[in-house]
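Q: I'm writing up a methods section and want to include an example of the input and output format. Could you take the sequence below and give the corresponding predicted structure tokens, formatted cleanly so I can copy it straight into the document?
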Amino acid sequence: MAPQKSTIFFVGILLILSSCVVQEKLINVQIEVLMPGRFYIPISNSTIVIANRTEKGNDSILVFNPVAKDKRYPYLLKNRNIISSFCSEYLVKNLKSYNQFNNVKFLNGITVSESQKISEKNIEKFFINTNSNVVVFIDSVNVFNKEEGAANYKYKNPMAYIDWSIVWKNDSAYSVFKQDTILRLSNEVITFNSGRTVYDDRYLNDACNKLALCLAEQISPNWKIVDRSYYHSKNLPMLKAEEFAQKGKWLQAAEIWKTKTEIKKRRLAAKACFNMAMASEMEGKSELALDWVKKATEIGHKYDEEHQNLCKQYWDILKLKIKESDLLKMQMGY
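A: Here is the clean output for your methods example:
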């Protein structure tokens, strides 16, 4: 029987597609994995505030407005503070969609003087006033062109940049990280008019959303769709196990695969061991999956480069997942 949602939250895995694609000897499936954020923040018990404190200066960019009334000059000047507000709002939206924080709040138009000095006294006052224990300060958001290429062939690549800080409280201690994130944009975001760079408003909004998504994935645990593979075989019992796997019945599939792991046919036994690793991971047993990958590597012929590379790749994936599990457990409050 496939694991239920409560179990899946603990192991961070959910089978989302039962349809499978056979590629040569492998069957590929897509699963959804719960990835941890970067920081040691107890997410499940936290209220986070997104505070936009970008200065309202005179710095503006020229933006193409596709719905402008005056078609002769469909352009407008957009202050970078407005772009920062868009990015902050998208960040709030993304964090809410993850549904991991206890609460997500948004403060717009906060002045730099109110929050510039992140001292223990100031941040404690800020947390009390906002009834929160995590804050993300959006300090500036910028779009610009980076000139790249050889000396005789220069071209401009549109980039988006966000300067931000995150502060949180753990017991009586405070942790502060100042970050910056740079994202390469599609060339469609810019055109040129009379020597000035013009940004398309539609792509600009998309850039703000992508920047916010980069931040959200660093801050909060989030579900990612990843690929996994297991071996296809014409062996009749293996085909029966494959039927169970395609229905998400990994325990039943494992019962059959396990009977093939000790047979004398090393090639088939190695496949069965690898498939046992996949079944173990799907049941939330990453350490056991690692043992099965090791056995699949040892049983498989050392000159079978494709099999050895597949085992090495899966070994690295599982090792990283196990390494990140303590961080994920802390963030999720397990």
